[in-house]
Amino acid sequence: MRTTTTSTILGAALACAALMSGGTAKSENPLKDGAGTAAIYGNIAPDQIEFLSTPDRIKSVASSGAPTAIWETLEHGEKVECLDCISVVEPLLYDANGKTREIAAWWLRRRVFGVFGPGEAYERTLNTLKGDGDPRKRAFAAYALGEFLATPGIEACATAVVADADPTVRVAAASALGRLNDDGAGALGKAMADADGRVKIAAMSAASRINQFADTASVTRGLGDADAHVRRRSLELLDSMHARDAIATVASLAKSDPDADVRGAACHALGAFGDASSRGTLEAIAQGDANGLVRDQAQIALRRL
C-alpha cells in the first residue's frame, strides 16, 4: 500500500513539474506514459484520461483554425505557461466562432506573464475597442474584455455602450458589463434608452446578471417602448428586481397591452410583487382576457398574493 501511494505522489509531482515548466509533458498522450500513467490514474481506460497540452500543441492547433481541437487543447492547457503561445492565441479573440473567442480569452486571462502588462494582449484589446476602424473587431474586443474579467474593461465598455457609433458594438459592450458584474457607473441605464432595441434588450439582460442592480427608473421607462420585446424584457427585469414601485404601470400593461406575451409577463410580475392591491386586476384578467395563456398566468399570480 505504501509503495503504491509513494508512486502515485511521485507520478503526480512529475506531471505537475512538466506542466509548470511549460515543456513537453509526456501526458500530452496518455497512451505513451506507461507505468507513470497507471500510477496516477490506475485502471482507467487510456481514452478516458485527461491529458495536458504542450506548448507545441497549443501553437499548432491555434494556427490550424479547427474549432473543436482549439477548445480541447486550450482547456487542457489551462495552466501551461508559454509566452510564445500568446501571440498565436490572441488572434482567436477575433475568430468567427463565438466559443473559440470565449475560450481564447479564458486561456489568456490565466497567464501569469505576457498578457496584462503595458503593450501586451489585454492593452491591445482595450485599444481595439477604443479605436479600431472595423466595428466587428470592436464588438469582439468588447466581448473579450468581458471574459478577461479585469477592472479596466469596465470603463472601456461603459464608454462604448453609450458612445460607439455601431449598435453591434454597443450590444457587445453591454453584454460585457454584465459579465463584469458592473453597470459601468450608470452606463447600462443609459443604454436602456438607446435608439436601437437590440441595445436596450442587451442592457437589460446584462443588468439581470449584476448583483444588486437597482436602477428601476431606467428599467421602468422600457415599459412604454414601442417594441413589445423591449416591454416584455423590462417587465421580466422588474419582476426579478421585485420593483413594487412600478406596480401601477405593470398592472396597466397586464390589462391592456396589445401583445399577449407582454400581458402574461406583466401578470407574472404582479404575482412576484405579492401586493394584494393587484388582486382585482388579476381576477378580471383571469376571467376576461382573450388569451388562455394570459388567463392562466393571472390565475397563477393570484395564488402568489
Write a short abstract of this structure:
Helix content is 65%, strand content 0%. It is mainly α.
Walkthrough of the structure:
By secondary structure, the protein is mainly alpha-helical. Helix content is 65%, strand content 0%.
The CATH class of the domain at 214-305: Mainly Alpha
Q: Considering the protein shown, what is the CATH homologous superfamily of the domain at 214-305?
A: Leucine-rich Repeat Variant
> How many strands, which pairing sense, and closed or not: the largest β-sheet?
none
What is the average of the pLDDT values? 89
Q: Which regions are unreliable across 5 or more consecutive residues at pLDDT < 50? A: 1-28, 30-34
- Structural class assignment: mainly alpha
The string of secondary-structure elements, in order, is: HHHHHHHHHHHHHHHHHH
Shape: elongated
Helical residue percent band: 55-70%
State the separation between the terminal residues, measured CA to CA.
63 Å
Radius of gyration computed on alpha carbons: 26 Å
The total of helices stands at 18
In the CATH hierarchy, the architecture of the domain at 214-305 is Alpha Horseshoe
Annotated CATH topology of the domain at 214-305:
Leucine-rich Repeat Variant
How would you name the oligomeric state of the polypeptide chains in this document? single chain
The portion of residues forming beta strands comes to under 5%
Summarize the SSE layout with pairings.
Elements: H1 2-21, H2 35-41, H3 55-64, H4 67-75, H5 83-89, H6 98-108, H7 121-131, H8 135-148, H9 152-163, H10 167-179, H11 187-191, H12 197-207, H13 216-221, H14 228-241, H15 247-256, H16 260-273, H17 279-288, H18 292-304
